[in-house]
Amino acid sequence: MTPFDKFLSGFLGFQRARLEDDPESFARLALKQTPKCMVIACCDSRVDPAILANAAPGELFIVRNVANLVPPCEPDSHHHGTSAALEFAVNALHVEYIIVMGHAGCGGVRAMLTNDPELAPEHPFIHRWMNLAESARLRTLEFLGDQPLERQTAYCEREVIKVSLRNLMSFPCITERVAAGTLHLRGLYFDIANATLALYHQDRDVFEPVSEPEGDSGEL
């Protein structure tokens, strides 16, 4: 079975299961989408927010890119895919949460930290894209410049989440809703090897393991 055949077979299995559990589910989804959460995640094949959250179709509005980065608000004539998705999620879908989800073993972050000039011609888009996280790289080198690359990468992956959260607040439509209490921002870090999730607490600048929620524990 080829990888594409496996993809098709997987869809048919999903289709059968959904129709058995809820025969009307596709008909309802065809009418509209009403997600309450937007997730900005890495396009790494091991980090699928819908699978990790055990979410059904229609529950999450998801944007995936290299290193789960949010660019700053730049209303110019260029093309801005992530910014367009943010605009739609906030202004049209009225999501209540925007979650930035980073992860361990991020290739984009590692490429930024190694910054090998020999690799730049081979991956020019990745290198330019990762410039968005330059502040995270500099902070990592400031505190862990003499440490092994693996430790630097793990630290920088968390710093990149913070960069994206800060950049989210550069969008007027987001800052207005955060101030009004109708929109909340969250940062999560997924450790692939241990299958654990950590929540960023802005007030203490720490990531703590996620446990069964007793309420809304975020700050934004």
Task: Pick out its properties.
220 residues, alpha/beta, Beta-carbonic Anhydrase, Chain A, 6-stranded mixed beta sheet, 9 helices, 44% helix
Can you put this structure into words, describing what you see?
The chain is of the alpha/beta class and about 220 residues long. The protein folds into 2 domains: about 30 residues, no CATH class; about 180 residues, Beta-carbonic Anhydrase, Chain A (3-Layer(aba) Sandwich). The chain is about 45% helix and about 15% strand. The protein contains 9 helices and 6 strands; from the N terminus they run H-H-E-H-E-H-E-H-H-H-H-H-E-E-E. A hairpin with a 4-residue loop joins strand 5 and strand 6. It is globular.
How do the strands and helices of this protein lay out in sequence?
Layout: H1 3-21, H2 25-31, E1 37-42, H3 49-52, E2 60-65, H4 81-92, E3 97-103, H5 107-114, H6 124-130, H7 134-144, H8 149-168, H9 172-180, E4 184-191, E5 196-201, E6 206-209
Parallel strand pairs: 1-2, 1-3, 3-4
Antiparallel strand pairs: 4-5, 5-6
Helix pairs in contact: 5-8, 7-8
